[in-house]
Structure formats: C-alpha cells, structure tokens
Amino acid sequence: MSDKEDPFENIPEAITNLVNMNYPNESQEIFSGDIYLKSPNKDITLIDGKIEFVWLPQPKVTFRGIGNFSFEIFSIMDQDDFEVIIQSQSIGKAFISSSDGNNLSGFITGSKIVIGETNNAINKVTFGIPNLREFYGEPIKSNAVSYLGRLNLENENFIITIDKNPFFKKYHTNLKNIGGYQILYSGEIVSKNGIFKSKEIEEIRTICDIFFSFINGRKTSMLFLKGFNNENLVWEDFTPYNKVDAFKHVMSWPQFSSGLNFNEIWGNFVKIGSTDMGKDFLNSVIHWYTTSNMNLALVEGSIILSQTALELLYNYLIVETEGFIKGDDSKNITAANKLRMFLTFSKINCSIPNKFIKLSEFIRSDNNFKNNEIEGLINIRNCIVHSQLEKRKKLKKIDNGVLVETSQLFMYFIELGLLRVLGYKGKFLNRCSGNEEYVPWVTAEE
C-alpha cells in the first residue's frame, strides 16, 4: 500500500446527525413562533409559541405559548376540538391541558403530525430509531474512524439502510444509567422505482416497526421521518408512532457476534406482512412477545400472553399455512397437543432445558406430568387463567422461580417459532442456555 492510499476510501460514510440528540430524553424542537388554535366557535393565538417532541413520561408532541383570548379558559380545558395551525398549515388537534394566566400548554393529537407537502413526490426518506440494541453489521466510517454498524434490508421494491451512531457506546451507557429514550440509529429508505407513493411509505414504516421490535426484543419505531426529493426537504413527520418501550435490558434472539444477515428473514417477513391478515399475525405475535419480554404484565401475565402467541403460531403454521389439520379438528385438540404439534413440526425440542432446574423439579414432582412436560407447562398457565379455588391453591404453592422459567421457556418457543415461520437457517442466541447456536431445524437436517 502506498503512502497516498486511504485505507478507508472504500468504506461508506455513516448516516449520522439526522436527529440531534446528545443525551437521553432530550426534547426536539419542531417549531417556534405564533401558533393558531382554531375551533368552530373560538380562536386562540399563542404568541412566542413553541412545539416540541418530548419523551417523558411517554413520547408525544407538546405546545405552549402566551395566549391571546377574551373568554374563560376553563370552558375549553380538556377539549381537543381546536386545530393547530402553523405557517397556514393544520398539523393536528390541540388538547389544552394546563393554563397559568395567559400561558397555555397541552399536546397535539392526530394520526399524523406532519409539516410540509405530503402529496409531493419524494425519492428518499430518512429516519431515526430509538432504543434499538447493538448490532454488528457492515463497516462504515465517521470522522475517519471505521466500525461495524450498518444493517441493510432489501427487497424487490426498497433498499433500507440503518447505521449505528458512532457514539453508540456512550449513548447506550447513558441510557442504561438514566433510562427513557435515545436515538441510537439513523437510516434511510430509497425506492428502487425512483419515486415513493404516500401509501408505500406508510406500509414500509409499519412493517419495519414490527420487524425492528422483533429483533430488539422490545418495541421500537421509526421516528422523525423526513421526505426528500433530490436532497430537497419536502416534509417532516413528527408523529410519535406506536408505543416505543422505555429502555430496559432484555434478552432477544439475535446473536451478539458479527455476521448476522437479517436479509435472510426480511424478504419473508415483508411477504407475510403484505396481506392484512399476515400483517395482523406478525403484529399480534410480536406485540405479545415484546410485552412478555419486557415483563410489563408481570410474570403471570407474561405466561398468559406467551401461550396466546404460541397458539397463534400453531394456527398460522400448522392449520392455515401447512393445512395439516382442517375444520373442527384444529379447534378441538387440547392446548398442550397444539403446542406439542407445533414444536415437533418445527423440530424444536419439547423437553425442559437442563438449566431450568426449578421448573424441571416442579413438573417431575407431579406424577401426572413426569412423562408429559408440555402438559405440565400448560397446567401452570391454567392455574393462572382459571380462577377455581383448587387452581388458586395450586398457584399459591408454585415458586416464583418456576413461573420465571416457564415464562422464559415460552418466549424461547416464540422466538424459534417465528424464525421457523420466516425460514431462518442461521445462528441465534438461546436464552435458555446462553449460547449461540444454529436453529434446531438446521442441525436436525445435518
């Protein structure tokens, strides 16, 4: 290599600074100036107004300013029939929640909070992603420093590039210490057809949010979308899409080592999500999975939600996709047999992992389940769901460690079940053993 050659010449620049967020929960200013609140009967002008995207207690768009009005403000408190108008454009409905003299504040609601012309043609969309866990992708560089941080998702219509922030380690550490939200990745979507349609943007955003939540193990979303036409900004979208989970360390299935290729499942994910029922299937299973993984419904609720997700996986794969069981027969078999059939077809081991000592001891202590561990797992779920006195007495005797291991095993089944549906053949992080392993249907074929 000559002295003049640049070792980083062929490494692409990272996509950075799309959202200026230097510390967790830093609000993003959207607009400052006069804000007009208009309703059929009353109008308010907010002087020195400010509109911001705030993160806590949950992401939303707020407004505040000095109101110019001549009526009793309490007559319109807690109402959302005011349109919010800035620069002659309506961007949503105002919910006035607080007043101090003439100082008014509240938040903006609506299915979309967009500034600009959404009907104009665009050929690129940029975005940020909060609270997405670390992945090692392809090499990128920032300020002459290279690192592994690019994920590429591609199908027949779109190329989606997601780049890890060069200060990911620092930002992630701050996020763990403080909690809340931080933009950790930036990205862009480019259409292979050259021009985006509004409907296409909404469809790809929706399926990406579900996909990112699956690989993350907790809910996240594309935020701060911007539409460009030949690098000219056309519109900005500040809608707080979906419910982004506040930071919490959770396990998820992608391996931590480099070399993970999400394109292996992305094509099938998009294909399934291209129909309304397929999208509903993915959204429902991953919603129940992430809610359980975050322990938002506590361990008992996690077990219930996880078993619901597993039954949906059974119906989608065994009944609807493969057609192994038809008619009423698919409904009449027991929950244990549904789970056993799904796991067996997917070549997923039905036995309780060796490390789950408490769960193993609990199930084997009951003569009814010594040789039927799946039935024992479903029995634990039934003790939670059904409220007969006998089952409540059983539940009271179950050690919390047994419940935790049951919940973890169910989530392991969900992760592998979804990967089986998506045709994945690579490595995953086994939450039951803590090891990186090939998915079992690949090892079973060898």
Summary of the model, kept short:
The protein has helices at 168-178, 198-216, 263-273, 276-293, 298-321, 329-332, 335-345, 357-364, 373-385, 389-397, 400-421, 440-443, and strands spanning 28-38, 43-54, 60-68, 82-86, 89-100, 103-109, 114-116, 124-130, 138-142, 145-154, 158-164, 183-191, 223-229, 232-237, 427-429, 436-438. The chain has 446 residues and is of the alpha+beta class.
Low-confidence stretches: none
What structural category characterises the helix and strand content?
alpha+beta
pLDDT averaged over residues: 90
What count of domains describes the coordinates? 3
Q: How many beta strands in the DSSP annotation?
A: 16
Can you give the helix content as a percent range? 25-40%
**Major sheet: size, sense and barrel closure?**
8 strands, antiparallel
**Strands in their spatial order, largest beta sheet:** 7-14-13-8-12-11-10-9
How many angstroms does the end-to-end distance come to?
43 Å
H/E element order: EEEEEEEEEEEHEHEEHHHHHHHHHEEH
Q: Measured on Cα atoms, how large is the radius of gyration?
A: 25 Å
Using the alpha-carbon principal axes, give the shape: globular
Number of helices: 12
Proportion of β residues? 25-35%
Q: How would you characterize this protein structure?
A:
The protein has 446 residues and is α+β, with helices and mostly antiparallel strands. It folds into three domains: 28-114, Thrombin, subunit H (Beta Barrel); 116-237; 269-443. Helix content is 35%, strand content 26%. It contains twelve helices and 16 strands. The mean pLDDT is 90.
